[in-house]
Amino acid sequence: MGLEIRLEGVRHEYERTEDSAAVRALTGVDLTVAAGAFAVLMGPSGSGKSTLLHLIGAIERPTAGRVMLGSTEISALPERELTRVRRRSIGFVFQFFNLIPTFSVRENVSFPLHLLGEPEEQARSRADQVLEQIGLGHRAGHYPNELSGGEMQRVAIGRAIVHDPEVLLADEPTGNLDTATGERILELLASIHRIHRATIVMATHSDRAAARGETIIEVLDGTIGSVRSPA
Ligand code: ADP
Ligand code: MG
Question: Which of 80, 85, 152, 216 has a CA 20 to 30 Å removed from the CA of 137?
Answer without folding.
Answer: 85
